[in-house]
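User: 2-dehydro-3-deoxyphosphooctonate aldolase. Structure?
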Amino acid sequence: MRPIHAVVFLFCVVTAMGCGAHRMSGNTRTKPVTSLDAATFELTETTTDTTYGFDRKNPVSVGNTGGGPANERRYLNALLGPHGEPVSYIREGSCCAFKTPNGLFDNTGMLDRYKVTWAGAADTVVLYINMYDRGDLKIPVGFTARQRP
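Assistant: Predicted structure:
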């Protein structure tokens, strides 16, 4: 094993122990994903699950088709605040190793944590996004989404 691979592997193992690895996910998408434009997914369904996106054990699974990090941004660009306010977001980094058949190394993926806020918000919220697996994309509780003109 090359030294850089050993470091990445060790990082994944330590992170998995620190954040708590969750079950192997894979691809569970049942509905096609459409886009409003090249930088924005179209989100039409709001979830009632208060853990969706907010809990590392129930991340938003944007998939890696077309580029995982770009899909994360396409998802976040679709979100609006509770009254249609534009949101801003910043990637805090990766965390929370988990098993997935789509992982790049030893069937392991890492979630990305994003801080999200909007004008008038009392505080920022953290959303967890999985760029390895594809799941149905929904609007998290407390958010709305951009609509077609």
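Residues 113 and 128 are 5 Å apart (CA to CA). The radius of gyration is 16 Å.
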